[in-house]
Amino acid sequence: EDPSLERHFKGHRDAVTSVDFSLNKKQLASGSMDSCLMIWSMKPQMRAYRFVGHKDAVMCVQFSPSGHLVASGSRDKTVRLWVPSVKGESTVFKAHTATVRSVHFSSDGQSLVTASDDKTVKVWTVHRQKFLFSLSQHINWVRCARFSPDGRLIVSASDDKTVKLWDKTSRECIHSFCEHGGFVNHVDFHPSGTCIAAAGTDNTVKVWDVRMNRLLQHYQGNAVVNSLSFHPSGNYLVTASNDSTLKILDLLEGRLLYTLHGHQGPATSVAFSRAGDLFASGGSDEQVMVWKTNFDAADYGDVLKTQKSGTSVDGTHHTLQSEMDCVIHLKKKKPQDPGRNQEQQEEETSLANTLEHIMGQLDVLTQTVSILEQRLTLTEDKLKECLENQQKIIQNKMS
């Protein structure tokens, strides 16, 4: 069954810039160029709350992990923390000197990371509401910043065409991914924490492994990609594009599964619910849409269970390396059979080795070809010289 449109929220008076679900899926937050933040109830007949406080466009919104707070960033250079209730009280964070484009809570809800046109990424404590530190190596606007699931890394995307990976403790840039041909609009961590996906104005979505810093997948679209969200299982990715479509990519198969048409004009933002059964989208058409995912639950129910069990001996939650591998190699709609699994893993290992071997051979071929090209150039030069000499001899004889 294909994903289907479930609800339709109208109330914003300008383009919607950002959407996010609360933990329990009872509420959906959206930010808009109309300077308002709206909290929609997923229960029919329940009224929406409109929060007023920002003096300019709201660029980004996010619920805290517990759902008791909502953070927003605005063109008025401030970050606000709201209590999503009737009163709609908020506190203001001031440290950025330009538009704040992105807000994101760490998974423990203790820290907030923000990204701004002042070319910095900033980290704050949520409860003491204090600015902690800046990461400033980008040389253009920073459009997006996210914590890794374990909170140890931060990834940021910028108009300087790079995606940077930072170590939160040492505050150093560990790696810069420079393969984008345009501005990078959005970036996020895979639920396993082992890879990231970035969307850009070069119409692409790229997926990198952050352990080896190598490109894993590349999806070429035909329009600017504004936003993306990983399904909690880690098997799917949904994107929002300027051609008004939402696309669902199957990361296991490395292909496009669905293209959804709903918005009139650019689709600006998209986000899966925390359980993955719904996703929401916002657009320049001032509309917020909620979609039923309708994936086969068997495809990702098991994965979510395995992911929850990744706790280490000292009790801190961290994601196991093998977990990502289990996610990427999950085959669809087949019962999990331990015996088969063993074979499957061996098969995959041998396949990986074969692929590596082929890549090696290709490298050798490439080198060979380049050596041949050099020799050819030398031969051509020699030939040219001979002909010129012959030409001279003939001319001398004639004279």
UniProtKB/TrEMBL annotation:
GO BP term (any one): multicellular organismal-level homeostasis
Start and stop residues of the WD repeats: 9-50, 51-82, 93-134, 135-176, 177-218, 225-259, 260-292
A matching Pfam family: WD40
InterPro entries, alphabetized: WD40/YVTN_repeat-like_dom_sf, WD40_PAC1, WD40_repeat_CS, WD40_repeat_dom_sf, WD40_rpt, WDR55/POC1
Gene Ontology cellular component terms for the protein in this record: centriole; ciliary basal body
Gene3D superfamilies, sorted: YVTN repeat-like/Quinoprotein amine dehydrogenase
Keywords: Coiled coil, Repeat, WD repeat
UniProt xrefs under CDD domains: WD40 (cd00200)
SMART domains linked to this entry: WD40
Highest taxon, organism lineage: Eukaryota
Protein's UniProt keywords contain Disulfide bond: no
SUPFAM superfamilies to which the protein is assigned, alphabetical: WD40 repeat-like (SSF50978)
Family of this protein: Belongs to the WD repeat POC1 family.
Entry-linked PANTHER family: POC1 CENTRIOLAR PROTEIN HOMOLOG A (PTHR44019:SF2), WD REPEAT-CONTAINING PROTEIN 55 (PTHR44019)
Protein's job: May play an important role in centriole assembly and/or stability and ciliogenesis.
Protein's name according to its UniProt entry: POC1 centriolar protein homolog A
Organism: Ibidorhyncha struthersii
Lineage summary: Eukaryota, Metazoa, Chordata, Craniata, Vertebrata
